[in-house]
Amino acid sequence: MPSNPPMIEVSDAELAELRARLTRTRWAEPWPVDGWQTGTDIAELRRLVAYWADGYDWRAHEAAINALPSHLADLDGTPVHYLRFDGERPHALPIVLTHGWPSTFLELLGLAERLAAPSRFGGTAEDAFTVIVPSLPGFAFSPQRPELSAAQQTHHLWHRLMHDELGFDKYAAHGGDLGAGVTSRLAEAHPEALVGIHLLAVAAPAAHDPATLTAQERAHLRSVADWQAQEGGYLHQQSTRPLTLSHGLADSPTGLLAWNLEKYRAWSDCGGDLSARFSDDFLLTQASLYWFTNTISTSFRPYYEFAHGLTPHVERVTVPTALALFPADLSRPPRSWAERTYNITRYTHMPRGGHFAAHEEPALLAHDITDFFRTHRS
Where would a tag sit more exposed on the chain, N or C end, judged by fewer CB atoms within 10 A? Predict the structure, then answer.
């Protein structure tokens, strides 16, 4: 396949339709509450919708996206989009970075650039990686898999991409959120190819004896239950009745933005102020990618597939594993909890950052990944 094809070319008519929909938004009746108390703040949403409709320059971002080192691979009839950043030194260790939800490959750009060309950011060329950033199936430029089945799971596609398509006998992997699950299953299924994995989250043990739990582990499980009760409504909906939600979000760009915006604020280390971590253009470019590719519905599929047994649970990961925990992320499991499932050889509490660490703190994350894999490059 040719490198660097134009991945997206939105017509003037599509762009005009988006702006018309935004301008014609039928706003929900307000409640007698303030700010983000009951969901996305209407004042912030109105401000961003107004900018999206008049002021936001999609064409500039479209051009920047099309200038990225994009490629397409056909893996037994399943197209996969990916970015490739060659390392600044020969034979750089390959690494595959996997994004989560409600993210896209764009969230990983700053991290990928630092890993591929560390000398540009104060590091040394000896630490360079050749970085592969795929789009998850059903996200942006990777179409959803053709069947709702246990076949052709993403972690197997990633191994096909890295090993068979790109020719890497040994490689590294990193992921957070959904990407952590893909990375974990990749290492479990193909340990002979993985030199190690770096995660921002871990799978819970497939089974455990409650009598063996430490005080830290019990506290962790209580915090997970509290989070599920307060923040887990999206997870339940996307796991059980995703298409009921999808029809509304695929028809209303304002609804789509509201659904995703709440997560960027709640899950990041922004102190309640979105602008502390995300520019308006970043948020609207992510939303625009979901809108123009019509992939908000297909982005829900990993939740449904896991909840219905189509995606396997992680049983045991034996390859060396690093876990980096950012303080505003969704959970921060103790090391002993992670060690029930993984071969943890590095465990780091980060000083700042949240769920979108690759965008919030790319330098911190790149440093931790580099330090971990420095001992596994041979």
Answer: C
